[in-house]
Amino acid sequence: MWPGFWWLAVFLITFLAVTLPQKSEGSPVPTVEISGFTPRWGASAVRLSNGTVVITGGFSGEDLGTTEIWHPGSRTWTRAASDPQSRTSASAVPLPDGTVMVTGGYNGHYLQTNEIFDPVRNRWKKIASDPVPRGGGAAALLPNGDVFVTGGFNDTGYLDSSEIYRPRSGLWHPVRPDPVLRWAFVAVTLNNGNVLVVGGYNGQTLGSASQYDPRSDTWKTVAPDPVPRWGASTVLLPSGNVLVIDGYHGSYLATAEIYSPLKNTWTPVAPDPVPREKAIAVLLSDGTVLVEGGLNPGGFPSVGEIYNPGTDKWAHLPSSNDKTP
What we know:
The chain is mainly beta. Helices cover 3% and strands 41% of the residues. The chain starts with a helix and ends in an 8-residue tail after the last strand.
């Protein structure tokens, strides 16, 4: 069984009255303006080169292929073609050619399937499957355009396996595994080209952190997050530091920390006004951070936030296409 899903099922039965939307078949559809973000848990998100944000998949009573685009300039949402593969706890990576790769996830089965979303044509296409089915893993774009995928959970248990996908050849290659088995962790590529991996769960909630060096195919342990957590969100900030927010550890967390790769230290910053687990966080073109979705005791949050690392302040994002200041 998917780790942690028993309490999510109890939560939904006890607290939510969900009207299930019709499943999308994933056929290409015109991009249309919608009233706002679809609240959900375990979605994946990336920022495109034009500054817009693609959010896809997740869970809101059923696993979704729903794909939505946030336009920061106009503060509007549009709906794009749905991922043909409904899934939660997948990973999304922006590729150098402007497309988006979505890998792995869970929809009652642990998935190997990978899709490419073309935001210009508003179409999806299937690519070579990951050799390892996984949900709750993480993926990161490497400086050379390859995609690093690691960790997660499948029918064999918690994973440490790591692979690199090469978009140019369409091939997968195994690399050195993470020294720590982990699921529902975060990963981000640093300015030095290494991938920082933090937190997660493997029978216990983790604060451990490691860096993977793709050039030498080696791992090294770095300072742990002082707040052990799984289901957190992370972004690389313009400063080169890493923001880690929210998550779960006995309760839904709102705590936020910044990790300095140069100093190998963690510093607490202003907490998220809305505690949330398995939300999305994306660095916007102006250096602020968009946070949406997740789960907390109130259900699936419908309100998003913008975090400004320069001022260490949070601001609510309108919950619909309300363009008033």
